[in-house]
Amino acid sequence: MIWGVAWAAVALAMAGCAALQPRPAEVVVKERAQARWDALVKGDIKAAYAFMSPGSRSIITPEGYEASIRKGFWKSAVVDKVECSSAQSCDALATIEYEYLGKRTKTPLRETWIKEGSEWWYLRK
């Protein structure tokens, strides 16, 4: 019984240590990029704007960003993978689907994400 409790304590401690380790940048960026695309597909421009880097947000207002977006244009988007060239910069590779001339079309897209502070942000070019 005592050994069972001791093993349970060791297992719990190891699980706690694993939870404290930072997640790989590729995983974090993929989640954030997909959340941004999900917002765009839903037409939630304010939510998508919140993923923009602080520098991008200093250049374009929420109203300006919303005016630059065609609501309803995107039909779906999937972030396929993320490639990080450094600890501060990653590219998210996505497949987006939209309607053009009455036909649904899929196309690849590459977007840049940068790390500022402890968070990853979409860099609008």
List key phrases describing it.
single chain, 125 residues, alpha+beta, four-stranded antiparallel β-sheet, 35% strand
Task: Give the end-to-end Cα distance, rounded to a whole number of Å.
Answer: 61 Å
- Assigned CATH class: Alpha Beta
- Identify the CATH architecture: Roll
Class inferred from helices and paired strands? alpha+beta
How much helix, percentage-wise, in residues? Answer: 40-55%
The amount of beta strand, in percent, is 35-45%
Widest beta sheet: strand line-up: 1-2-3-4
Q: How many separate structural domains?
A: 1
Query: What name is given to the CATH topology?
Result: Nuclear Transport Factor 2, Chain: A
Low-pLDDT windows of residues: none
Please explain how this structure is put together.
The model has no long low-confidence stretch (mean pLDDT 89). The radius of gyration is 19 Å and the shape is globular. The protein contains five helices and four strands. It has one domain (21-123): Nuclear Transport Factor 2, Chain: A, CATH 3.10.450. The chain is 44% helix and 35% strand. By secondary structure, the protein is α+β, with helices and mostly antiparallel strands.
Brief summary of the model shown:
This protein is α+β, with helices and mostly antiparallel strands.
